[in-house]
């Protein structure tokens, strides 16, 4: 019926440590992303899925056109240096390899009078920029890994002549941060509870108890909600993701197709740009987590 949401400093620290270990094991640091060697060295970075709403338009960022350069923390910008001076008119492609093709996007950073912007590939290489700063590839994930989608995204970057003759290829590897389930042992920041005719008295009784515990009660109510669609833990699964530096609160969208799922999705994306939702395929069953989440 209710769900507690919170993330203690200790758990954030633990999450950062875990992600930090991943980064140390297989990822470059931001300052080492520059690849000036000209060799086909593999690069890797950690992506937090870009399913939040940094521009507040109510649409997860990965489902819309890319935001202004620098406005979206979940869009990694990775420099790639061609191994030689490129001929006039050279093009660059950036393609997401399977099985992530439909679940990630790659863009090319281009200059414009209004400042840099990210455009879909292919694009003509800006040779002066490329000599100074390389070609910058924007990469974002649109979902977490799944049983048929390992947590590594491969981006194939190809430089070619204007006529399409390949000149040089590079691969970029990006790790996708895992979804980490929140624990019911975390101190609660707020408690979500569904209020219908069936739960009115329960919600009334709960409110002072939640306040005494130092948390806030968030009542989910809507006239269109069926009286017995009251189990919030079936409608949303809460957790977080981290790249070792940042922690993003994540709420997975319920997959029952019930009214409460959709209502929670709309409410959460309005509530906060750091609390995000995305419909999930029925590969996990939130109901099975009930006993763990409370
Ligand atoms: Ca974002
Ligand atoms: Ca958005």
Short description:
This protein has 294 residues and is an alpha+beta fold. The chain has two domains: 2-6 and 180-277, no CATH class; 23-175, no CATH class. Helices cover 20% and strands 29% of the residues.
Could you describe the 3D structure shown?
The protein is an alpha+beta fold and 294 residues long. The protein has two domains: 2-6 and 180-277, no CATH class; 23-175, no CATH class. 20% of the residues lie in helices and 29% in strands. It is built from six helices and 15 strands. The chain has helices at 9-26, 127-133, 200-212, 232-235, 259-271, 290-293, and strands at 2-5, 43-47, 76-80, 91-96, 104-110, 117-119, 123-124, 135-141, 152-160, 166-176, 180-181, 190-194, 216-220, 236-242, 247-253. The strands form four sheets. Strands 2-10-9-4-7 form a five-stranded mixed β-sheet, with no helix packed on it. The chain is elongated, with a radius of gyration of 22 Å. The relative contact order is 0.19. Mean pLDDT is 78; it is low at 6-43, 279-286 and 288-294. Bound molecules: calcium ion (2 copies).
Total domains, how many?
2
Bound small molecules, deduplicated = calcium ion
Q: Would you count the extended β strands for me?
A: 15
Shape: elongated
- Subunit arrangement of the protein: single chain
Summarize model confidence as the mean pLDDT. 78
* Uncertain ranges: 6-43, 279-286, 288-294
Which percent range describes the beta-strand content? 25-35%
End-to-end distance:
8 Å
Summed up, the helix count is 6
Strand order of the largest sheet: 2-10-9-4-7
Q: Cα-atom Rg, whole angstroms?
A: 22 Å
């Amino acid at each position: 019926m209710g769900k507690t949401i919170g993330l203690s400093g200790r758990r954030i620290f633990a999450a950062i440590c875990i992600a930090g270990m991943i980064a140390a094991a297989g990822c470059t640091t931001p300052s080492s992303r520059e690849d000036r060697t000209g060799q086909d060295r593999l690069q890797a970075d950690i992506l937090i899925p870009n399913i939040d709403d940094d521009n507040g338009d109510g649409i997860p960022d990965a489902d819309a056109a890319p935001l202004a350069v620098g406005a979206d923390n979940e869009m990694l910008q990775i420099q790639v240096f061609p191994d030689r001076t490129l001929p006039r008119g050279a093009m660059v492609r950036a393609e997401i390899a399977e099985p992530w093709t439909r679940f990630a996007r790659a863009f090319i950073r281009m200059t414009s009078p209004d400042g840099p912007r990210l455009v879909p590939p292919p694009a003509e290489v800006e040779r002066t920029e490329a000599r100074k700063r390389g070609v910058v590839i924007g990469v974002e994930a649109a979902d977490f890994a799944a049983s048929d989608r390992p947590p590594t995204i491969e981006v194939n970057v190809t430089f070619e002549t204007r006529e399409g003759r390949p000149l040089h290829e590079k691969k970029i590897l990006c790790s996708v941060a895992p979804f980490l389930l929140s624990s019911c042992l975390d101190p609660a920041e707020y408690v979500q509870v569904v209020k219908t005719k069936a739960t009115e008295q329960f919600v009334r009784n709960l409110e002072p108890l939640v306040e005494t515990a130092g948390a806030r009660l968030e009542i989910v109510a809507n006239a269109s909600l069926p009286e017995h669609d009251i189990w919030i833990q079936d409608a949303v699964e809460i957790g977080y993701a981290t790249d070792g530096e940042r922690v993003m609160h994540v709420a997975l969208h319920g997959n029952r197709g019930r009214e409460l799922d959709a209502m929670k999705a709309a409410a959460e994306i309005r509530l906060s740009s750091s609390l995000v939702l995305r419909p999930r395929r029925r590969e996990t069953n939130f109901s099975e987590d009930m006993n763990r989440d409370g």
